[in-house]
Amino acid sequence: MTLIPAASARECNTLRKVTSVQHSPLFANVSPADCREIVSAARESEFPRRDTIFLEGDPIRQVVLLTSGSVKVMLLGQKGAEVILRLAGPGDVVEITGLPAQCRHCSTAQALSASTALIWESSAFHALAERFPALQSNIIKVAAQRLEELEERYREISTEKVATRLSHQLLRLFNQLGRRVNGSGTLEINLSREELAQMTGTTLFTVSRLLSGWKERGVLTARRECVYVHNIQALREFADNE
Question: Please, what is the average pLDDT of the chain?
Answer without folding.
Answer: 86
